[in-house]
Specification:
This protein has 151 residues and is an alpha/beta fold. The protein contains four helices and five strands; from the N terminus they run βαβαβαββα. α2 packs parallel to α3.
Length: 151
């Protein structure tokens, strides 16, 4: 009448490690406008929520082509956060197109451990990620943008 599962674990002789208290970022640590590009609605929604909690104004779209259309219509985001594998144009292709237009503030998000198809000069964040990791990656984008403007 169903499945029965038994899980046998070895007895541990050493005490359990003391859990580390979770750190919570202060809301509003980020600023500016982020154009978020991801074709998976649930992933895009959770990432948008993380960005909003960090203090960013988030504009969402489901494809690289839609992102380019928004930019062509006058949107000027501070940073573009894009999934790598998108239908049609990839996130890396989007970043290259934006670079050719003088915009170099793109963060590529990928669920693949390898960098297949992602140029090493593009900033990358691997899925799944925590809000703290997203915040740190966006700080890298901002630092790179500042160093490019100074050069």
């Amino acid at each position: 009448m169903g499945t029965s599962i038994e899980l046998w674990l070895p007895f541990a002789n050493s005490p359990l490690p003391t859990p580390v208290a979770a750190t919570r970022l202060e809301p509003g640590t980020g600023s500016g406008q982020v154009l978020l590009v991801d074709d998976e609605e649930l992933v895009r929604g959770s990432t948008a929520e993380m960005l909003a909690e960090l203090g960013y104004d988030v504009i969402e779209c489901a494809s690289a082509e839609a992102a380019l259309k928004l930019i062509d219509e006058g949107l000027k985001p501070d940073v573009v956060v894009s999934d790598h594998l998108l239908p049609g144009m990839t996130g890396s292709d989007l970043a290259r197109t934006l670079q050719s237009r003088g915009f170099d503030s793109t963060l590529i998000i990928s669920g693949y451990a390898r960098d297949e198809g992602i140029s090493p000069d593009l900033l990358r964040l691997t899925k799944p990620f925590r809000q703290e990791e997203l915040s740190a990656a966006l700080q890298q984008v901002a630092a790179r943008k500042i160093s490019v403007q100074v050069s």
